[in-house]
């Protein structure tokens, strides 16, 4: 009997420890939420900087595409690289939004719910525990009274024995009931605690999935880097297309003409040039 | 002869157009460099926010690992997710450094070199073009003089003919030489222009390679997400390990015990709870 009583106390203690852990966890969750919010706002300004960077990148690509020489292929590969990065940027923007809308905001709502639930669990358990203890105490007192009475009446008819046995059985049943109730309370607390992580992971997954979607862009980047490597492998040799620019000029109606500039601006440096 | 002259002018005009394109490109390159620098500084602050976020994430993971219930597996999966993100963060840090050290800073140096080279190309070409034109002019004048002389001496011995033919051949040769020289100048300008993109891409590649390596880290995230999905698929059911926590308590020396709290704090709400 004493062992069941101790076990009920231990179960109650375990329940309390779990609830206390949950209660002391809020600063950790709130810190996570605050740091995620800060990351979100940093990512937003980084995305703005990335957009401006990609605009500047596209201008370099356009310049290569539209130059007189044969850098059209290089320009188009750079444009593809720029477009891929715009696609990464779009996914990063999506990630940034999901981080707050899908994770931080719902998590903050949950934290409030968790506080209420843990308090309620604690309150309900305390009440139930007390009620059980009191009932057991009352029944135990009844038993003690019956035992005294039985001892006095031992010399009498002795018909208190079944009554005493039944009372003692009642106390024992109440203990077993309390043990089961305490186990259930511990299970509820464990479920609540574990459920928090399940909820958290449930909210986290879509965020990580958007992040994983960015991975898909790699293959494309690799292909473009490979193209650019081939296109620029010999910077000291003009590709056939550049020679074609010169040949095309011969057949054309000479839309170009050259006016020799006045020599004044370069006169100071003229001693340096000796190309004859 | 007139056609070769026109072609030389056209080649000179093409050369000038290429050099002018190069000269007008600096704002585009400088804008690229400025926007990359801004992106770099934004990324640096984002990395700080990411580090703080990952520290907070790790605390959530630790909490799951150390909780009384059976969330140790969840905690260890969250820790792995956190570690992967730290690895992504390290690569992002590397990317951020390479962006400036490997691309922006060397590019800025190159822009200064490019300015000098384009100016020198322009100056050398103008000088060479003028020199060729003057030489042709002088030779042409000689030819004209010889032609007049030859016309006057037509009635004489007529031995100026070979001299005149040779002078005219000289002019023609000079034109062909000038044409070749102009073609070479155009080729030099095209090589210089194309070389800029080759240099740019050469500087860009290591940056994109680090980026690709960073995205490569994301592959590992999928496995962790899959683990977390399995671990949390039924939040309303305690896993066997949680039941074990309760069973283990039975065999233990009952290090837990429960003190029923004073009823005062919950007394106001007591009418609501009716659990008996």
TrEMBL record, chains A, B:
Pfam families: IMD. It comes from the Eukaryota. Keywords: Actin-binding, Coiled coil, Cytoplasm, Phosphoprotein. It is found in: Cytoplasm. GO terms for cellular component: actin cytoskeleton; cytoplasm; cytoplasmic side of plasma membrane. One of its GO terms (biological process) is plasma membrane organization. Residues 253-276 are annotated as: Disordered. Signal peptide: none annotated. Residues 1-252 form the IMD domain. The keyword DNA-binding does not apply. CDD domains: I-BAR_IMD_MIM (cd07643). One of its GO terms (molecular function) is phospholipid binding. Residues 255-276 have a biased composition (Low complexity). InterPro entries: AH/BAR_dom_sf (IPR027267), I-BAR_dom (IPR013606), MTSS1/MTSS2 (IPR030127). PANTHER family: ACTIN BUNDLING/MISSING IN METASTASIS-RELATED, PROTEIN MTSS 2. Belongs to the MTSS family. This is Metastasis suppressor 1-like. It comes from Nothobranchius kuhntae.
